[in-house]
Known about the structure:
By secondary structure, the chain is α/β, with parallel strands linked by helices. The strands form 5 sheets. It has an 8-stranded mixed sheet with strand order 7-6-10-1-11-12-4-13, with helices on both faces. β2 (288-289) and β3 form a beta hairpin. The longest helix has 31 residues, at 163-193.
Amino acid sequence: MSGAAAPLKRIFQYKNIEYILFIAIMIWKLAYMHSHLHANNIDMSKLDYVIAIGSVMAASFWTLWLPRRGRGIALSILNLLLTALIFSDLVYYRYFQDFITIPVLLQAGQVGELGESIRELIHWTDIWFFIDWLLYIPMIFVLARRKRRDILTVHQFQARGSRLKRVLTRFITGVVTLALGLALALGPINYYTSTWAVGLFVGNWWNLALYNVTGLLGFHYYDAYKYGQEHWGPKQQLSDQEIADIKKWYEDARADGPEMNETYGAYKGSSIIVVQAEAFMNFMIGKQVNGQEITPNFNKLMKESLYYSNYYHQTGQGRTSDADFSSHSSLHPLPTGSVFTRFPDHQYDVLPQILKEHGYYTAAFHAYDSSFWNRYTMYKNMGYDRFYSKKDYTIDEPLGWSLGDKSFFKQSLDFMGKEKQPFYSYMVTLSSHHPYALPKQLQELDTGTFAGTIFGDYLQAIHYTDAALGQLVDQLKAEGLWDKSILYFYGDHDNSVKDKDYYEQFLGRSLNDLDMEQIMNQVPLLVHLPDSKHAGVYEAPAGQLDMTPSLLHLLGISSKPYYMMGNDIFDQRKKMVVLRSGAFTDGSIYYIPSADGVFENGACYDLSTRQKTDVERARQGYEEAKKQLDYSDKTIVYDLIHKFEGAASKSH
């Protein structure tokens, strides 16, 4: 064999059997995880296996630099670390439909708080991730017992050459392994990105599309590279042309200004109460289980309020904090991590700050730790006069994560009663949080066949929160605030229960991909106006980015001076709603992107027939959605609003 091939041969020698076994085990775990993602349009092809093998070799090549016994220990530790990463990604995906990123790891405190929710996401079949340890641990002991024989082998080797030669041989073997691993991983990735995944690393907005090309370990390598580049590398800057293009996009979007219809400024000076309800979804509004209304109070309010039946959450990895951010800033959340923890000190045109400038007292209410999602810092930047957190509440109704919603609403209104009017009050509920484990005495519904399931528990939790909403309305009326305030009630995100069988059984019909897409992304919006006018069901598409421009409309405050991407729901002009995944709807069609990121592989549905139609009908909307997400990300990351407004001040 030639000198160049000799190190390659050494990799596969018997004495490296533990290394070969390590690679085989890691590939099996990656394949097992992939099979449990159940991701549409993503199959693990032969080239994907090649990428996986190369990625594992790139992660482990350094162990070949170690002496035999040290290598076995190092591989065992690496096995443990990679298994933890793969398993954590799977559990995280079950809840968020996404993978762990560096920003998420820096939010580890938020994950740790999930407690019972995480336990619910672990399945007994996950034991297979650790079954190899029944083989691996005994193997380490076997290696240790072979130490004496290895010493003899070393002595024989010393007789033939120097210690330096042994070290050099191990070093070359490791370097060749690294080179081979990189070639195996990068070759297919380069092929993908030069054919069907062109531009993936330039304008990607979905981590699942990255995973489809790079594999799991490759995804984490790239995520670490991007994070390092963003925080420690040379600071990448946008060109003057890019900044000008983004600024022009905002100017064009607001060129026409707000629609001056009968609702514009009709409620000037009214107080505003916004309720962001945890995991409050749209599919069960107006529905019953065993003859019992699930949301009787919400249903009753619909008769005197504006109900938006096609209102979408637009959240990403930040979930509740994303809903908070997007609703108040009218910008999209980031594709990775939460704006609250990544860029809390950047400048945004947010509702509390705008209202504060117009004489409002602004306060946020959330009966949990003020540090969670970095709210204390972010809320200061958003211009809140006061943030009422867990320390301000009496925990007289302990429930789930903290205080039950009924007591939370009552105590929050007591605080509001001491505030000067007009006020802006933003409340975040907790009781309907995953895993929806209400005490038996609070479970009022007979959920029938759903009893004892997470879906049945979810219905019980929503029914409780709905009852709390009813008490909130009663107290607002009793305290004379009902006729002076705008109530804006919406859900923050889905319930993370994605088993289609539950929804088909509950709704009594079969569901297609469009049905499930809308079920998992639609949350209800209820707007009650002080005079109860304009009540009805509104079917035009809307989303969380629309909250701030819409509330400003009612108060007669123009959103034209601000940098926002959302629509005014009281403006009758046709509009488009873009989700963080790249899905979008304009009320006529609904486009669902493919996990591989290829436009043509996505699905376009005609909403009048609810059947697939020519995907080219979505081409223009797809390009606009892609641009909107990209511009929103750059606005946040590069603090462009600060630059825009700074430049405007200088020009004056």
